[in-house]
Design a protein that fits this description.
Strand content: 15-25%
Number of strands: 23
Low-confidence stretches: none
Shape: globular
Largest sheet: 8 strands, mixed
Mean pLDDT: 95
Structural class: alpha/beta
Number of helices: 17
Radius of gyration: 23 Å
Helix content: 25-40%
Oligomer: single chain
Length: about 500
């Protein structure tokens, strides 16, 4: 049952370094104090205590999502999905029929207006939605389409298209996510249980909030679904330093489940909003090269300050100009951390990643979701688009995530996207960038390292079928029989 501690995992077929010694033969994992204390062929050791017999199932290291916006992801299920909407007119009509939430707002999520044949306008949204404040959030969260009632409520002047972008859009998301603490925490608890059912044992939280207080509160309320590393943003950096937060430190009072993560810095926009900073213009606008939202000199200063304070950095950089600027700053400061997304990377910059030891934190499902956008907006870019195999071939450390709610928080969808590079019946997109399932599993383990060996944490996922031989659809639907967090069951099918 969930919550019970396990002393022995019996008859497991391992993945990772321990499998080298035992091959594909079933083994028993002896657990103690949340760690793997011993491994032996099944039946070779006398066992005692609570036994979880997995009957020869594949057991993999607990899965991590290295890029999650926790509250926004948790609240996503309570908002209206626009993922299947094919036009601005259809989106406005759908939102006009939505029952307002308790606070009087209508909120839609997941729109992809860059693929629509018609343009969003304020007049269209006003005509169909009237005086009910209505918000349509782009799938990439970098823009939001609002009617006049919503713009008035939030104190923004009207624009012809009703769109707010980048920092203004982020501000709207922050306000919409600022539900009362009890409601938000309840949504996070429910979402954590869903994640555990998919084998998740950890996330990196990039909510645009002061997350130290939020995670202390959730831990006090009993959150124990998975481990968390939480980021802070530049607006809260001085507060983090003043409170002595350093990357890797345990957050006091959270029973070892919550740790301080990186300083998050957003240096450009996104592909869908057409604001990712690129070397070549967007195909639909020859004057648009995207935007650098942090000046390179300021970025170097922020990385210097973070390093001095004991903080790693997570630099959002999607376009190749932003990636190059981030690598320049890493070179100058010798800071440690990740570049998040890296959706357009110059060939010459691959070697710089590896030489600097900078990690790429990428979201393989974005390649599946963005293939049509790349075909219409980035046809003339010369850099590598949504690379995966190229990163690994260059000996770059890679971590996988979802950017939830931009893509679903489901590591099996992530793994399938990396291995097969398609989410429908079309042929793989850029098939040369596919990776093997072993590499995908490793990138989906904590910090991109897959361990089920003696001395490793007993964070484990028991697979209902074998991922090493599963096809695309089976990977995407992968049944998870059980999830263990430090030897404690968080999910049991």
């Amino acid at each position: 049952m969930p919550g019970e501690r396990v002393d022995v995992v019996r008859a497991a077929r391992l993945f990772g370094s321990a499998a080298v010694a035992f091959g594909d033969e079933p083994v028993d994992l002896i657990l103690a104090d949340g760690w793997i204390a011993d491994i032996a062929p099944t039946g070779a050791l006398r066992t005692a205590g609570r036994v979880l017999d997995v009957a020869g199932a594949r057991v993999v290291p607990g899965l991590w999502d290295h890029h999650v916006h926790t509250v926004q992801w948790a609240l996503h299920a309570e908002r209206t999905s626009l993922a299947a909407v094919g036009s601005a007119a259809e989106a406005a009509r759908l939102m006009s029929e939505v029952e307002p939430l308790g606070d009087g707002r209508r909120i839609g999520v997941g729109m992809r207006d860059a693929l629509w044949p018609d343009d969003p306008t304020l007049a269209l949204l006003d005509e169909l939605t009237g005086e009910v404040p209505t918000y349509l959030i782009n799938a990439d969260v970098h823009s939001v389409w609002m009617n006049s009632a919503a713009l008035r409520r939030e104190g923004f002047p009207p624009t012809p298209d009703g769109m707010l972008r980048e920092e203004d859009a982020f501000e709207i998301s922050r306000r919409l996510n600022a539900a009362d603490d009890a409601s938000a925490d309840a949504a996070v608890l429910r979402a954590g249980q869903r994640a555990a059912a998919r084998g998740v044992t950890g996330t990196v939280d990039f909510d645009m909030a002061w997350n130290a207080a939020a995670w202390r509160r959730r831990a006090d309320a009993g959150f124990a679904a998975h481990r968390v590393e939480f980021a802070c943003y530049a607006a809260d950096f001085e507060r983090a330093v003043a409170e002595g937060l350093r990357t890797g430190d345990e957050l006091a009072g959270t029973s070892g489940l919550v740790h301080v993560g990186p300083l998050k810095l957003i240096t450009d926009g996104s592909l869908g909003t057409r604001t990712a900073a690129c070397s070549h213009a967007y195909d639909d606008d020859p004057a648009n090269f995207g935007v650098l939202t942090i000046d390179p000199d300021e970025l170097r200063e922020l990385l210097t300050l973070a390093t001095a304070a004991g903080m790693e950095v997570a630099v959002h950089a999607i376009g190749d100009r932003a990636v190059a600027s981030a690598l320049d700053a890493f070179t100058y400061t010798q800071a440690r951390g990740t570049i998040e997304h890296a959706q357009l990377v110059r060939h010459a910059d691959l070697a710089r990643f590896a030489r600097l030891g900078v990690v790429t934190s990428v979201q393989p499902e974005h390649a599946v979701d963005d293939r049509d956008l790349v075909g219409s907006l980035w046809q003339h870019q010369q850099a590598l688009s949504h690379p995966l195999a190229s990163l690994l071939a260059a000996d770059i450390a890679v971590r996988f995530g979802s950017d939830a709610p931009v893509a679903p928080l489901d590591p099996w969808l992530t793994i399938a996207a990396a291995v097969h590079r398609t989410g429908d019946e079309r042929a793989p997109w850029q098939p040369e960038e596919r990776v093997g399932v072993e590499a995908a599993l490793q990138a989906s383990a904590r910090h991109g390292t897959a361990e089920t060996s003696i001395g490793a944490l007993a964070d484990l996922a028991v697979c209902g079928s074998d991922p090493l031989t599963a096809g695309r659809d089976e990977l995407r639907r992968m049944p998870v029989s059980a999830t263990l967090l430090g030897g404690r069951i968080t999910h049991r099918a």
